[in-house]
C-alpha cells in the first residue's frame, strides 16, 4: 500500500471531458475478456493488453493501472433463445441478446513490480477509489465513438396526408383475398389511398418481393400515399404507410378516414403482413451469406494468419471488404506488419496512439495477419472490431464518420489519400504507391499537331459497353420471350433471366479507343475545333485496380445499376496499352498563340461550360467542376461527376488548373477585371491568377479565391504539352503489363450506398471469401459480378 501511496501523483481522477478507454487495447485487439485482461493507465486512461502494458510504462513512466478481467459464466444449455424485436445493436430487444454473460473483477496493479491490490477495498487511498469508480461508471470512449443503434427515426407526418384527394370510383376493398391488379401477386400488396388501386410492391435485389407495380402506378399518376395491406389492425399506428414523393415510411393521422373511404373497417382486420421495418429486421436476422455470394454452397471456415474476419460495426462492410484486400497486398503487409512491429509503431506514436493513423494501421495489420485473433469459437470466429481504425480514417469526413453504408470505391480512394499524406516526404515507405500509375493522353487537332497531357490515378474506371455482349443472340431471344410473356400476363422466373455478358477486354478497349473532343482550342489554328484523343499507360502499377461503372445516370438523374456480368479472365496482358510518348515527326502544339489573342492560350482542352454549369447546379464547387470536366476531356456530365466524387479529397483539388501556362503573360486578363478583384482587398497576383483560372469571369474568380485561400504565384504548374518524363513519373513503380487477378470486391444492392459488400481474395493457391467475420474457402467466386477488380503484376513480388 505504501508503494501505491508513493505514486499517487501519477493517478488522476477523470474529468467529464477525458476519453476513457476500457473496452479495447489501443495497440491490439485485446479486451477485458482476453487472457490477461486489460490494463487501464490511471493517468492517461489508455488501455493495454497484458503483453503491451510494459511498453506503455517504459514510454510514459505511468506505474498505476486498473486491471479489468472478464471471465465467462457458465450458461445453462436449456436457456431459451430470444428473437430480436428491434433493428438495433446493444440495446434491449436488439441483436446480441444471446451473448454470453461475464463476471468482471478489478485490481490495482503497480508496475514494474506488478504488485496487485484488490478492488474494491477500504484500505485503498480515497483518490484511487474515486478514480476507479469514475472510470468504471464512465461510458467508454470506444462505445461513444460507435453509434451502434440502427433504430429508425420516428415516423414523420406526411405532408400529403392532411389534404389527400381521394377519387370516388366505387371501389370497395374486401377484408381479404387481395391480389395485385396487374399480376398474380397476393403478398406485399399496397393500397393506393387516392384511387384504391391494389398493386404489388418493389422487387428486392435478390428477386423476392413484388413486380414494382405500385411504384409504377405512382410514377404514372403521382398519387402519393399507399398503405400496405396486411399491416392494418385496430392499432393504426402500426400500419405501414409509404409516401412515394417523400420516399419514406410516414404517419397518416387521417388513416382511419382514408380507409373508410374505401369501405375498410380497420377494427376487424388482423395483421397478416410484416411492416417494412419488420421485414428489414427479418432479412437481417436471416441473412444468408452463402446464398448471396456462393449460391448456397457449403463453405469451409478458415482460421489462422491472414484469415481473420472483421466485425461489422453497422453498415461497415465497405470498410471490411476493402481492408481485407488492402492487407493482402505485399506493400501494405510489409509496411504495417513485417517491417514495422507493434512496439515500434507505439514508440514512435504521439502520446495518444488511438488518433495516429500509422499506429492504427499497424494494429489492424497485426490483427488481420498475425492469426492471434483467428481461431474457432463455436465453429466460427469472432473476428476483430476495427473501431479505432475507423475513427481515425474517417475523422472529420462527413460520410465515412457516419454509420451509413458507403461506396467502397470512394472509401478506397480516401484511404490511399490518407496513407499518402501520412507518408509525405517518404515515398519509399508509402505503400499506396503500389496502386498509383500515370496516364498519358494524346490529343491531335486537324492541323496535325499534337498535345500531351499526363495525370496520375489509383484506379482505372471503365465503361461497360453493353453492345459488346458476347451472348447477344441469347439476349435477343430472351427479350422476345419476355415481351411475349407480358402480352400473355406471364412472369419470367428469376433463374430464367438472361443478363448481358461483356468481356473485360471490351471494357478495357473503351479506355484506349480514340474519341472526339469537341470545343478543343487549338493554338495552331487559333480556334476551337474537334480533336482526337487517345490514352495509354505511361507507367504500370504493381497492383492494377479496375472500377466497373455499373451505376449510371438515367434521364432525370435517376441512378440505375446495370444488370450485367463481366467475363474476367484470371490473367490479362495490357502491354499494348502503354503510351508510346512523342514519336519522331510529331510536332507539338505551340504553347501560346502568336496574335496575343485574349482567349485560351494553352494548348489544352478547356472546360465545357454546359458540363460545368450542370455540375455546379448540383452544389459542387465551380472550380472543382472545371477540373472534373477538363480531366475527363469534356466527355460528359456523368464522367465528370464520377471523377469529381473520386477526387474530392485529393490534396491538390484546389490547386490551379494544370493546363495554365507557366508564364502569366501567356494568358492575358482584362485589366479592369483585375482592378475590380483588387478592390475587394485581394493582392494583384491572386487576382490575376483567379481570373485566369475562371476564364475572366469575376464572380467565378471570387469563388476560386475562396476555394484557394493559400494560392500564390509560386503554385503555378507547368503546361503538359511536352511528353518528357516528369520527376513524379520516376517516383512511380513501373514494370511489365501482365497481371493476375488477385481479389475482387462485389456488391449486392441497387446503389453503392446501400446493400452489402463482400471481398474474395486469392490466397495460398485458393479463393477465399471475406464476408465481415465469416472467412471461408470459396466454392464459386463471383468473378463476373465484381465492382472492383484487383490485379497483381505477375512476378512483382520478391
TrEMBL record:
It catalyses: Thiol-dependent hydrolysis of ester, thioester, amide, peptide and isopeptide bonds formed by the C-terminal Gly of ubiquitin (a 76-residue protein attached to proteins as an intracellular targeting signal). Zn(2+) binds at residues 180, 183, 200, 213. Residues 651-672, 709-736 are annotated as: Disordered. It comes from the Eukaryota. Residues 606-647, 668-708 form the UBA domain. GO terms for molecular function: cysteine-type deubiquitinase activity; zinc ion binding. Residues 308-794 form the USP domain. Its EC number is 3.4.19.12. Residues 156-266 form the UBP-type domain. Keywords: Hydrolase, Metal-binding, Protease, Repeat, Thiol protease, Ubl conjugation pathway, Zinc, Zinc-finger. GO terms for biological process: cell communication; protein deubiquitination; proteolysis; signaling. It is an enzyme of class 3 (hydrolase). Residues 709-729 have a biased composition (Polar residues). The active site is at 317 (nucleophile), 756 (proton acceptor). Belongs to the peptidase C19 family. Recognizes and hydrolyzes the peptide bond at the C-terminal Gly of ubiquitin. Involved in the processing of poly-ubiquitin precursors as well as that of ubiquitinated proteins. This is Ubiquitin carboxyl-terminal hydrolase. It comes from Spirodela intermedia (Intermediate duckweed).
